[in-house]
């Protein structure tokens, strides 16, 4: 459609400050090519991440703005931040929830970030083949199930909000609340406590515009039970902040930078049409009211 083409044009033409260097995609992330030998779902047809081809995204009038509830936490609510050897994970209380944009309600479990190397980008999803400096995932599970563990095996079990991180000119105050604690968890397995803050600040202010598709966990067991939402606005961090995230992993992992994210999985079919096939990634998008609402850094 014309609107989606306008979106693509804006994304390609919007001035951006990229993290220096490039990171070629490789399949050495803990042997991704062999994951399916031990975890059958890793060889499935709805695997994540994917490359979002904006021109091929299907407009869906049924998509609604994402609504967050309970995301602003008081400072006396302490959150556990852990270096798990792949990235940093911030555990979230179940009082955080998705109350709009999905047919059912989902509770938060944790958030984590996929970083690059000190010289290149590290987002898992790509847009039109472009990888971003980093990517945040906020993980939720369906409240119809008693726990994350129970939910993760059901087709409607999980919902993940994703946003891309880019290098801008100033410090991001919300990401600072996490990054300032990274020196405390330099070693794999180390944990620290982070005072509560407004978790919503880690995501774009405008939650109306996004890409949506049904996919999977990006690491084993690769269950194909994730409803993905990838926001069209990117979050801007300072060069120093992005470097700090990259250097945490560079210092705690002996492996190559390619070990820190899974490469996009090929889309099984080029067009879903009106008949959505189970073996197809149907990437949906919302109606853009004007070209200025397209893919761009957050103001």
From TrEMBL:
Q: What is its EC number?
A: 4.2.1.1
State the superkingdom: Eukaryota
Required co-factors:
Zn(2+)
Residue intervals of the Alpha-carbonic anhydrase domain: 17-272
Its catalytic activity? hydrogencarbonate + H(+) = CO2 + H2O
Enumerate the UniProt keywords alphabetically. Glycoprotein, Lyase, Metal-binding, Zinc
EC class, as a word, reads lyase
**Which GO terms label this protein's molecular function in UniProt?**
carbonate dehydratase activity; zinc ion binding
Which InterPro entries does this chain map to?
Answer: CA_dom, CA_dom_sf, Carbonic_anhydrase_a-class, Carbonic_anhydrase_a-class_CS
Any one of the GO CC terms? plasma membrane
Which function does this protein serve? Answer: Reversible hydration of carbon dioxide.
Family membership = Belongs to the alpha-carbonic anhydrase family.
Protein name, UniProt field? Carbonic anhydrase
């Amino acid at each position: 459609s014309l609107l989606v083409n306008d979106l693509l044009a804006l994304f390609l033409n919007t001035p951006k400050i990229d993290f220096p260097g490039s990171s070629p995609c490789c399949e050495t992330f803990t042997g991704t090519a062999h994951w399916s030998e031990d975890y059958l779902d890793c060889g499935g047809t709805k695997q994540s991440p994917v490359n979002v081809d904006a021109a091929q995204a299907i407009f869906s009038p049924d998509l609604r703005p994402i609504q967050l509830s309970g995301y602003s936490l008081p400072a006396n609510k302490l959150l556990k931040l852990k270096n798990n050897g792949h990235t940093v994970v911030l555990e979230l209380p179940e009082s955080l929830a998705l109350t709009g944009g999905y047919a059912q309600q989902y509770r938060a479990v944790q958030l984590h970030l996929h970083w690059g190397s000190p010289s290149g980008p590290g987002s898992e999803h790509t847009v039109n083949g472009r990888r971003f400096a980093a990517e945040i995932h906020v993980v939720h599970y369906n409240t119809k199930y008693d726990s994350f563990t129970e939910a993760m095996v059901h087709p409607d079990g999980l919902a993940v909000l994703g946003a891309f991180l880019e290098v801008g000119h100033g410090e991001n105050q919300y990401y600072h609340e996490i990054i300032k604690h990274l020196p405390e968890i330099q070693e794999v397995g180390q944990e620290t406590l982070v005072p509560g803050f407004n978790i919503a600040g880690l995501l774009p202010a405008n939650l109306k515009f996004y890409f949506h598709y049904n996919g999977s966990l990006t690491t084993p067991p690769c269950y194909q039970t994730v409803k993905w939402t990838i926001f069209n606005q990117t979050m801007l961090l300072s060069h120093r902040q992005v470097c700090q995230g990259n250097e945490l992993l560079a210092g705690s992992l002996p492996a190559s930078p390619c070990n820190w994210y899974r490469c996009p999985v090929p889309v099984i079919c080029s067009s879903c049409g009106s008949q959505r096939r189970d073996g197809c990634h149907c990437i949906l998008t919302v109606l853009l009211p004007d070209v200025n609402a397209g893919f761009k850094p957050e103001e």
